Amino acid sequence: MTDSTSRKIPVLLLLGFILVYLLPLGFRPMVVPDEVRYGEISREMIATGDWIVPRLNGLRYFEKPVMGYWLNGLSMLAFGENPFAVRFPSAVAAGLSALMVWLLMRRTGSILAPPIFLTCFLVVGTGVFSVLDGMLTMFLTMAMTAFFFACDAPRRSWKEKGLLALFGMLCGMAFLTKGFLAFAVPVVAIVPYMFWAGRWKDLFRMAAIPIAAAVLVSLPWAVAVHLKEPDYWNYFFWQEHIKRFMAEDAQHKATFWTYFLAFPVAALPWSPLIPASVLGMDRSRARTPLFRYALCWFVFPFLFFSAASGKLLTYILPCFPPFAILLTEGLTAGVGKATGKAVQGGLIALVVIFSGILLGLIVIQATGVGGFVPYLHSWKTLAATSGLAGFIFCLGISLKKAMFGSKLLLVSLGAALFLTTIQLVLPDDTIEHKAPGALLLRNAARVLPETVLVSLEDPLRAVCWFYKRSDVFQLGAAGELAYGFGYPDGSHRLLDEATFIRLIHGHAPGRVVLVGKSKHYRNWKDRLPPPIFEDTSGPGGYVFAQY
I want to staple 168 with a disulfide (CB 3.0 to 4.6 A). Which of 50, 210, 509, 521 is the partner? Predict the structure, then answer.
């Protein structure tokens, strides 16, 4: 890679970030459950002025602390209550995490790690949708970066103390985002690294400042929420941590090997290059503090997440910054060695994988195998196939490039174009199943301030968000709001069949509205009075029924 090309990469990276992470944010409909959930909790904080106690549909919602809701709320105050504002903090979180990766790698002279990180499929997926894992990863990546530089600073210097304080503050902010996991991840990564570096005694000396800083950051809200809701910490600690990590009936329960199988997919398009990186790693590079630090940062949190009973793919997102560092270290160390064949093999594998995806999309779209047609509009089909074809074209050109850096930049460019395109053309089937917003908005005129809103569990968060209401009744199982419904001030809003029928008969025609997933609504329909109006977004979508 020439010096002129290297100088252009930061500008290209910024443009790529804007293209992939920022420009498409407002073009997609908001999806259930996560996006409307996190948007609605923040909206209710703004509406009520209560920034201490998280509430969903006006009910206590204690599954997470408040930092993610605060960031979403600030974004909504700046940009309005819209999809762009709800997703913006996640996009910024991905960008700042990439910036930390660049800070860690700048001494090596390699600037490939940030684009590798930003084009990993899981990173993009969490960076362009509203989920809290990206914000947690941002704070953890900042914290781990601060600690690495603290280890590099003169011992007992003010620089070391300042960086340790910053490390603790960032851990405190991560704690306010997703809880005690914010302390577990740094501990399981840093302790083995310090032993490996022969500095285990420094752990005791260095611990006091970050612990104090983390407490100072997190204690004000922790005390405030306890004073308002004394049961918060009991529920949050036992239900959301101990039970999720250890219990036999943990939520999202999966086997130990789940992440080992899922990681190669989540790390596309870079996972086929892992063998080349491993082969290219020389001993001198493997002895560097950064390599050892990144290896501990990747391996031990990965094993920690694998040991937990409850698993979602997004939980391993904090492992992706060190993955990008390790992959870059191995690939750049292997330039000019036998790894050239392994790199070519990885690129060929990518061509085969995405050519297969393109062929599969064309066949399914043309034949409707199994009754499934991804796109109902020809322009979407053209855009999706063009995005895949463009990625494959970039991969093909990269195979012919002699310069290693140019190969990786072409992979990044192709991935960026594909990932931008695919955001703009979500399959119509996905929109039907996951995005009730269009149905709710086209019937908004039927929902008056005095209308009694009732929802089945699946779309309830969307009903609250799109109608700006926090007094929605829920019909059937309590679902994730079971804790909130358990309080006296919320129990009356959980309805069974008989109570709902009495509610209908107790109001004038047109004053009661029920929203539900189509397949669930069909289970209820024959047991309820006939609606005076009914609208649906499709057999796999949602129903709006007025009584």
Answer: 210
